[in-house]
Amino acid sequence: MQVRKESEEIRLSEDRDSKSEKFGCRRIALNTIVQNQGSCARDHLANERTLLAWVRTSIAMIALGIAIAKFSQGDESKADRLSGIIVGLCLTSMGVFFICYSRHHYHYVAEQLELGNYPIHDKGVDMMLGVLVVVSMLLLVTVLMVHS
């Protein structure tokens, strides 16, 4: 998996720039071009799909956390409002944490794929599941303590 030669890259860049100038817009290069040998493209696309799945799940957690916090504001009891805000804040925080983690993991896997390796991420999965279990248990205890 070698990166294209600089002269070839410049030629491709000039071709793109001349096409872009016809339409009055400028292109910003946000990608790295690598040769597609073997399963290179397939591996990188799978890595990207995994990132997008993590981000989609994180956005759902953030939205759920905001919704719980927002809808708990109308509750008449102070305990219900407090527990709704705590649960909403925890879900939102976990969603933001998962987005940051998924970005780190995406770049790590992409780097390893370029080196010809593929890291099996068993410790990371265990860590994420552990965080979910611990936070869920803490939320359950907090909500029960607030309501008693």
UniProtKB/TrEMBL annotation:
Places the protein is found: Cell membrane
Domain of life of the organism encoding this protein: Eukaryota
Residue span, DUF202 domain: 42-110
Segments passing through the bilayer: 51-71, 83-104, 124-146
Keywords from the UniProt entry: Cell membrane, Membrane, Transmembrane, Transmembrane helix
Main location: membrane
Bilayer topology annotation: Multi-pass membrane protein
Keyword Flavoprotein appears in the UniProt entry: no
Keyword Cell inner membrane in record: no
InterPro entries: DUF202, IM_YidH-like
Designated name of the protein: DUF202 domain-containing protein
Organism, as annotated: Tetraparma gracilis
